[in-house]
């Protein structure tokens, strides 16, 4: 693995895909002035920027003022594409089928007693009584997962974007490994929290697979993409992109998946790389 300062950026960069928490955002959940300037410079140079995050669209206000051009963001680990120019309206959804989610709930309850669940719908999150509460979502329904996932008529309910599973005692990576062994053939499992909190999506749904679809619509190849991330939910994206950087604060799985490494999120690691890409463009005379 090479660092941001000793590995040249690819000759052609058409799209930058960046995670938010632990990557683009500082630990206080702000975007630094340096990063804001770097994002604007990338767009000015003709490079599209996609925010690719585990966050739901309703939590994207932290970066909505920094979206240029297309205005799109990939949310909920690839389960939704949102238009931030339209207030986070979902324009594409890749749902987790409720029957599959119920099956996963039953499997994890048996494999890891004490697991509690939350259900992230296209309209908001709902959770079980013992699940760590979401203070940002005061209107959530509190009920057992089986009730939250039930619908009177199949196909009539609001789409499920992802299922969340929390365990108070298991180590985060151990819980992820157990879940993948238990039900990995039925859904996609990942995590981005420092706690034992799993994020469960439909089969084949990930940041990478939805990013690939968005790039295909634009005629952009993986070789023309530079990606940034820090946690296991970024691994597929870091592996898929032609050039990728794990943050200096990244989880070992992200470090292993990336082709390069930049500085920490607190040191504006994404901006460091973007500035170099822009500088290389100017030096070669290829800037738009």
Question: Can you offer a commentary on this structure?
Answer:
This protein is an alpha/beta fold. The chain has nine helices and 14 strands. It has helices at 20-24, 33-44, 98-111, 145-148, 172-183, 207-218, 235-240, 252-257, 269-284, and strands at 2-3, 15-18, 48-52, 72-75, 80-83, 89-93, 116-121, 124-127, 160-166, 188-191, 197-201, 225-229, 243-246, 260-261. A nine-stranded mixed beta sheet has the order 1-14-13-12-2-3-4-5-6. Strands 8-7-9-11-10 form a five-stranded antiparallel beta sheet. Helix 3 crosses helix 5 (172-183). The protein starts with a strand and ends with a helix. It holds the Pfam family Hydrolase_3. Keywords: Hydrolase. It comes from Streptomyces sanglieri.
Summarize the structure.
The chain has 288 residues and is α/β, with parallel strands linked by helices. The protein is 30% helix and 21% strand.
Summed up, the helix count is 9
Mean pLDDT: 92
Query: How many beta-strand runs?
Result: 14
User: Looking at the chains present, what oligomeric state does this protein adopt?
Assistant: single chain
**Main sheet: strand order:** 1-14-13-12-2-3-4-5-6
Biggest pleated sheet: 9 strands, mixed
